[in-house]
Amino acid sequence: MGVELMGVHGVYVLFIALIIGFMIFRKDTTPICLAGILLIGLAATGSVSQSVGGIFTSLIYAMKELLPTILVISIIVGMSQVLSLSGVSDTMISPVTRLIRSPGAAYWIIGIVMMVVSWFFWPSPAVALIGAVLLPAAIRVGLPAIGVAVAMNLFGHGIALSGDFVIQAAPKLTADAAGLPVGSVITASIPLVIVMGTVTTALAFWFLRSDLKRGVLKPASSMKSAVPGISGSSMKGAPLLPVKKRRTLAVLIPLLFLADITAMYAYRLQGGEATALIGGTAALILLVVALLSHRQDGFGKSTSYLVDGFHFGFKVFGPVIPIAAFFYLGDAALPELFGNVLPAGSQGIVNDLGLALAHLVPLQPAVSAVTLTAVGAITGLDGSGFSGISLAGSVARLFSAALGAGAETLTALGQVAAIWVGGGTLIPWALIPAAAICGVDPFDLARRNLKPVLIGLAVTTVVAIFLI
Length: 468
Known about the structure:
Layout: H1 7-24, H2 30-45, H3 48-86, H4 88-93, H5 103-121, H6 123-140, H7 145-163, H8 169-178, H9 182-214, H10 243-267, H11 271-294, H12 298-317, H13 320-328, H14 333-338, H15 349-360, H16 365-379, H17 389-403, H18 407-425, H19 432-438, H20 442-467
Helix pairs in contact: 1-2, 2-3, 2-13, 3-11, 3-12, 3-13, 3-19, 5-6, 5-7, 6-7, 6-11, 6-19, 7-9, 7-18, 7-19, 7-20, 8-9, 8-17, 8-18, 9-18, 9-20, 10-11, 11-12, 15-16, 16-17, 16-18, 16-20, 17-18, 18-20
Protein name: Transporter
Transmembrane segments: 6-25, 32-60, 66-85, 105-121, 127-143, 150-170, 182-208, 249-268, 274-293, 305-329, 417-438, 450-467
Keywords: Membrane, Transmembrane, Transmembrane helix
């Protein structure tokens, strides 16, 4: 069955190319994104007034989608600030510093811990938990904040989420679309996830170490701004709390987060519910520590810490909202904002483009594998990773039927490509949790991830060809 493409599809592709070009040359993408939203609106509706209004409504849509992440990051930053000023942060991380003695150890320990936690509770809550505790220890031994963000991002939103071996949301979606048992897709994904993860994380570490040796990066040079409390830059003078209280809180706070993890597992909390639990716990910790540290001024100070956190969160997210607003038009935002302007049977701009690509290529194992990687990557451009994996499963089913083999491998390959690109290693607004916690620019993190992830996808695709 063919796919009907319209002018709006062409406008979307053109502006994707322009945005990528602007990113490569380190130019601000906001004007291009806003122009793209305007022209997509014109191509879709033909109405100038509706298109101009669409700029504003698309920004509101992006804000609505990103707001939970903005809030939890803001609260975590506020909590980290009061923990730093009270001296609890230093006391809490002191045992970890015995293990983290070098930049290399920091990179691999943080990454592996992030991967394991993310398998059970998904990466977004894990970023808040791990970043707030382990980032200061990593910076102290010389790993730049961008290195911590890379480790958390690649191991969490890359390896853990692309395999999703425990929660199994991703393989369930792709397996259902491909008409396969979930277990077979998980089994087929294991070698691909291992290859992709090994190549990408090893290359990312090699590039980091090379830049450190050449002086391109310094331990604090990659910080976008001093993250209150996390970087320790706000620590001035003596700690606000005495030693005994600091030690007590240093034990209780990790136990509270451990209780969160237990609750997530017991009540099967995932995604937004898990993030909300982490955010609520962080808010309570902020309030209690502020009251203990400032006593009679505790209520006012707790508000100040929250305001500082919100200021930081919105400052970090501000540049990302316009580009997110543009890319959301490739999926569910377009019909919601501009009405049913796409042809009957359309699955959204991004999915239509993926299907069109699948229909253009000849059916051979090598070409099929490359196409599944491309389809997965294209559908990941909306920054979700999950919105397009059903399409990847459907395309894999078509290709494997023609080839007579390789259904499981092709399905797993499309899943890996979609989630590594869209789930949070290349698309800037999907990188925000790790970038914000570490105080780095999400666009800088995306650029640093780009080469390792692309090489990893190429190697993984070659491996998949031999497995088909």
